[in-house]
Amino acid sequence: MTAVAVTVAGSDSSGGAGIQADLKTFAALGVYGATVVTALTAQNTKGVTAIHDVPPDFIEAQFDAVFSDLAVDAVKVGMLSRTETIAAVVAGLDRYGLTNVVVDPVMISTSGARLLNDDAIDALKHTLIPRARVITPNLLEAAALLGRPVATNESAMRGQAERFLLHGAKAVLIKGGHGMGPEAVDLLVERDTVTRFAAARIATKNTHGTGCTLSSAVAAGLAKGYGLAEAARRAKDYVTAAIANADRLGIGTGNGPIHHFHRWWSTSATPTE
Asked: Which listed residue (10, 179, 211, 221) is catalytic?
């Protein structure tokens, strides 16, 4: 059977992040992708100019349409800007008994735009995160959700991940892409184990959609039957290569997208015919 993953997230009109990045990632990793759209954003490589939230009843209608028909193996949850949106998503996850869930607690876009309302933070922490198999905060998101300073070393990263476990998270993949040093280090922290993933830091401004892509790559791995640590390792490798090839694309004038199809496109910026 074909592995199926669903992205529950916002739309990026420029195609670099959100559901567009998720679908590209699923396709690149050999997984059939479907969507539940939670918000529409007007954005490009320079920033977000407008957000239109999808009504909760329409989010529920999308859940029912997709999950009543498709045999879904994993779910990635991304941008949920409002308490009402989070409630609709939680209800959908519960209604269909979904447990293979990757939650990317999207709070701020690459360009710096706020994507999560302050009054929705508690709902995210207390109702959605405990339902996830793994959450994937970056350093800034982890600090904001926990009310702590941004972690500056691996010990602090592990400590913050363990605080999420105390709050009900089953596993935490805390991402060090916003850190310093020659390596970008991610830590997968579970109840009894810590797994370290490291890659050389890549000098590029074209990192739009990196977080969305990593979380959807983890979901793709889970959908294909890999264990969590193996899914995270494969996701890290895929995203690192996509960042390394991002400058080949030349999309936009701001923070451009990473290259989801770097394995298949030619060395030029366009695919071979």
From this structure: 211
